[in-house]
Specification:
Elements (H helix, E strand, L loop, with lengths): L1 E5 L5 H9 L3 E5 L7 H14 L6 H5 L35 E2 L7 E4 L6 E8 L9 E3 L2 E4 L1 H14 L4 E7 L3 E2 L5 E8 L8 E9 L6 E9 L18 E2 L5 H7 L2 E3 L6 E9 L2 E9 L13 H19 L6 E11 L6 E8 L8 E7 L5 E12 L10 H4 L2 E7 L11 E4 L7 H4 L2 E3 L10 E6 L8 H20 L7 E7 L13 H16 L4 E6 L3 H5 L1 H7 L3 E5 L2 E9 L2 H4 L11 E3 L6 H14 L3 E3 L1
Helix pairs in contact: 9-10
């Protein structure tokens, strides 16, 4: 590559040359509207990065410039590449592949006849879950739990699922995932096996029970045939707008779960019968499922249509929670014929029977009883994973080994002077006077009186200047800076307002700590001399932020908030009113506006 350097006084020739010469670098040394030094250094840097040798030592000779290590962040030495290992292979981990979309591995427990299936659910790996939404949250349908139980029955030598009771909804977070465990117990009298399904957030350790049930040892042969289709005396039932109406009430289904295509009904001695055709979108992968959850769930939708038609404008969604007599006769279906029998009035009946067949009428699966119960889209029952994913800052006591001050300690200014004796620190008025000190201590606190704005501003300017001078002075390259405050941090057991001056200092220096790890310590103390006496132990332990009360050291920790606290007091906008969003045309404002519309039903926005 050819390189051209234009001396000046501007970059006119460089701009013209770039239009006519390809594969060449044109650099202007001077710019009429830029400072000469900045422009010249920028030009040299452009030449250097394009491959031109530059004598940097000669350029900076006599200026005191020196090389520095970059970046200066605490994570610079931590590799983030995934290690090349075989830990992802379940066989190498002593397990067997489960061969199911939601269950990755299975192991038989030693010295027992129990089986443990494990898996991980996430919105990334199981995108279909996001298409089944209730109240703005992705909800794993109960039929998916049934499919897991059917797979477990096959592994454990059972023929069907005798019963499954859903005890809590299973939700998948927008980011991250949840761990799944399906445990099959030893056979009871008669050969039936109890089983349970649990989940746990991958960032937590609290397991939630989602389903219990029994696997049956004896097989049942199908006693139905749906070859005559549809029955001659069945009448068509309109389904136009069915899924849109559900969405308006908070029950949102994606294309995979909008499988109800046609529906017929008839009433006779067997009760209210519904006949439906359901299907998956073309090309849907059904590998790893007995029946794909989107197809299986769509087969239950005639029950919802019946309830809506009987209830009129006001309806309550009934979700299945007790399943009995589930048998799978064939796998891999992408389309189904469905016969559903509802006992009693569709709007109030809680049970039904479901028979599933392929497009020729041959049996695919059967559910002899499905019990349902009402659920609200605004506040569905069960475990709230979103609340459990909220964390708050807590100050936890830390056990420290006693330590004496080592090296030379210097106290800057007058703030915190009362701690000089406890620390054995020398007092200095200005930073240059403390040259050679190993630990520098500076204190900041609000002065007496009611003035707030000026002390906050003055403290921010003063501490910023101090840190900048300290970092730029080579005489302090190996020293540490301890900044003392009083009341800047309010632990949970204190009922006082924080000191705004100290809180400002903490906020500013937290950024400096990220850029210069292990060099700056923030310590919020009380008036007890024992609190200052523990500072050497704090430095020895490597803590960079502490709150000390009566000599007891507390350090910050992230702690999960209980669901009752996480959701308490959360404002809910009135969907009928107008919500004003300042900055609403920006990227963040647009996201928030979308959140209000999709999650809270707000219809009037003022951006």
């Amino acid at each position: 590559m050819s390189r051209f350097l234009e001396i000046g006084p501007d970059g006119v020739l460089s701009a013209m040359g770039a239009q006519w010469v390809d594969d060449a670098q044109f650099v202007a040394l001077q710019r009429r509207d830029q400072p000469q030094v900045d422009s010249a250094l920028t030009a040299l840097a452009r030449l250097f990065v394009s491959g031109q040798h530059v004598e940097w030592p000669a350029l900076y000779a006599g200026t005191g410039a020196r090389l520095t290590d970059l970046p200066t962040y605490p994570f610079q030495h931590r590799p983030y590449w995934l290690p090349q290992s075989s830990t992802g292979d379940v066989v190498s981990a002593g397990q067997e592949a489960a061969g199911h979309q939601m269950l990755d591995a299975v192991v038989r427990v030693a010295d027992t006849d129990e089986y443990v299936f494990t898996g991980r659910l996430s919105a990334t790996a199981h995108a279909w879950v996001a298409e089944h939404e209730l109240g703005g949250r992705a909800l794993v349908p109960g039929v998916a739990l049934i499919d897991m139980a059917v797979r477990a029955a096959d592994e454990a030598g059972c023929a069907s699922v005798a019963e499954m009771v859903v005890t809590a909804p299973l939700r998948v977070p927008e980011t991250g995932g949840v761990r799944i465990q399906l445990v099959v117990k030893e056979p009871q009298d008669g050969g039936d096996r109890p089983f349970t399904i649990h989940s746990c957030p991958e960032t937590g350790d609290e397991w939630v029970l989602h389903a219990t049930g029994t696997l049956a040892s004896e097989a049942r042969e199908p006693e139905f045939d749906l070859g005559a289709w549809p029955p001659a005396d069945a009448r068509p039932v309109p389904t136009d707008g069915f899924y849109d109406r559900l969405a308006e009430n908070g029950y949102v289904y994606g294309p995979l779960f909008r499988g109800l295509e046609t529906l017929w009904s008839r009433h006779g001695a067997a009760g209210a019968e519904y006949f439906a055709e359901v299907g998956l979108p073309e090309g849907t992968d059904t590998t790893g499922f007995g029946i794909h959850p989107g197809l299986f769930d769509s087969a239950i939708h005639p029950r919802v249509v019946a309830a809506i038609n009987d209830a009129g404008e006001e309806f309550t969604l009934l979700l299945p929670f007790v399943w009995s007599g589930i048998s799978l006769y064939a796998t891999g279906a992408t389309r189904l014929r469905v016969r559903m029998v509802i006992d009693g009035d569709a709007a109030s009946a809680t049970s039904c029977r479901v028979q599933l067949a392929d497009e020729t009428g041959r049996p695919v699966a059967e559910v002899r009883s499905v019990e349902a119960r009402p659920v609200s889209a605004d506040q569905p029952e069960g475990h709230d994973e979103t609340a459990r994913s909220l964390y708050g800052l807590e100050w936890a006591p830390a056990e420290l080994s006693p330590a004496e001050p080592t090296g030379r300690w210097a106290l800057l200014g007058t703030a915190g002077e009362e701690f000089a004796e406890a620390l054995g620190a020398e007092r200095h008025e200005a930073l240059p006077d403390a040259a050679g000190a190993d630990v520098l201590v500076a204190g900041y606190a609000a002065p007496p009186g009611g003035e707030v704005l000026a002390p906050v501003r003055d403290a921010a300017v003063e501490v910023l200047e101090l840190v900048q001078q300290w970092l730029a002075d080579d005489r302090f390259r190996t020293s540490r800076l301890v900044v003392l405050t009083r009341g800047a941090v309010v632990p949970g057991d204190e009922d006082t307002a924080p000191d705004l001056v100290g809180a400002t200092v903490w906020g500013l220096l937290r950024s400096a700590q990220a850029e210069h790890p292990e060099r700056i310590v923030l310590a919020d103390l009380d008036d007890d001399p024992a609190s200052a006496a523990v500072l050497p132990a704090v430095l020895d332990a490597g803590h960079d932020q502490v709150v000390v009360r009566a000599g007891t050291v507390c350090v910050p920790r992230l702690a999960p908030q209980p669901p009752s606290e996480a959701g308490a007091g959360r404002p809910v906008p009135d969907p009928r009113g107008t919500v004003l969003i300042t900055g609403g045309t920006g990227a963040l404002g647009a996201l928030f506006a979308r959140h209000l519309v999709t999650d809270y039903g707000v219809r009037h926005l003022l951006l």
